[in-house]
Amino acid sequence: MTYIFAHRGSSKDCPENTMAAFKKAFEDGADGIELDVQLTKDGVPVIIHDEKIDRTTNQKGYIADYTYEELLNIDAGSWFSKAFQNEHIPSLEMLLQWIAPLPLLLNVELKNNEIEYDGLEEKTLDLLHRYGMEKRTVLSSFNHYSLIKIRKLNPYIETAPLYSDGLLDPWEYVKVVSSQSAHPYYKTLHPYIMEGFKRNNIPLRPYTVNQKKWMQYFFKWGAQAIITDYPLIARSVLHGDPS
Ligand code: G3P
Ligand code: MG
């Protein structure tokens, strides 16, 4: 059975990458949560997609120029709807405190392809270890040097390269970057590519699968998971709702 990962939480119903979005994903019956992590000026791993806070908060500037304490006062919900004005940029630790007792899988995407945050890998691994989350977390990144660094720091934790273009034999590339699974852009996954991953026993979790016909395609192919903004719809498609 294919797992459903909520992309930045249930991000069509709630402001992305906030605790409200993660809680909604759990209510929606998602099996796992995908989120993006970057570092503040004082080195705290926080959950946000863009390198700048402009789009998803009421302030401006790079996340790397704010201390964690400064971020605590910033509204990360009103841009989406007034009802979420009390949402803030969560720290990774806050998320881990919430998720650790719940039966949820986790995909932490290290958002370090534009800014290479010094120590992001070490800090993330340390937190996952402290909250006992290593066995149900996959770490992904568009920065594949970072995946190799993670492997050197921790021989066991699952990693997956994110990629958006057609690679030649991507199942071989997964091994080159010391990973166990792949998180490709869903449109790169032609049937012959799906075959190759299957033949090589490499689990796939395509992103971002929002249309029912693509959900069906990946369920049929037995992708290990899909990453979607619509976990509730994905669940109904998975359980046979044809509408
Ligand atoms: O991890 C899957 C997906 O989140 C990658 O793209 O830009 O939404 O972080 P992005
Ligand atoms: Mg992401």
TrEMBL record:
PROSITE patterns: GP_PDE. It is an enzyme of class 3 (hydrolase). Residues 2-238 form the GP-PDE domain. Its EC number is 3.1.4.46. GO terms for molecular function: glycerophosphodiester phosphodiesterase activity. Keywords: Hydrolase. It holds the Pfam family GDPD. This is Glycerophosphoryl diester phosphodiesterase. It comes from Fictibacillus barbaricus. The lineage of its organism: Bacteria, Bacillati, Bacillota, Bacilli, Bacillales.
